[in-house]
Amino acid sequence: MYVCLCVGATNQTVCDAVARGASTSKEVAEACGAGGDCGRCRRTLRAIIAASRDFEPAQ
Ligand code: FES
């Protein structure tokens, strides 16, 4: 599913960026471009980041 139409980034693209260490919408934008243009997808990006955090094993 596309989450960022400006750069054509899918949720998989964003998940990959988060898995590689991006933990803010700004870092996701730096990693894959999503959220770096109009900004309308940033709320979705933050939801993906938050969801991935929930699934991380406890430290
Ligand atoms: S839809 Fe993602 S920056 Fe515009």
TrEMBL record:
It comes from the Bacteria. InterPro entries: BFD-associated_ferredoxin, BFD-like_2Fe2S-bd_dom, BFD-like_2Fe2S-bd_dom_sf. The keyword Transcription regulation does not apply. This is Bacterioferritin-associated ferredoxin. It comes from Mycobacterium terramassiliense. GO terms for molecular function: 2 iron, 2 sulfur cluster binding; metal ion binding. PANTHER family: BACTERIOFERRITIN-ASSOCIATED FERREDOXIN. Residues 2-50 form the BFD-like [2Fe-2S]-binding domain. Keywords: 2Fe-2S, Electron transport, Iron, Iron-sulfur, Metal-binding, Transport. Pfam families: Fer2_BFD (PF04324). Gene3D superfamilies: BFD-like [2Fe-2S]-binding domain. Belongs to the Bfd family.
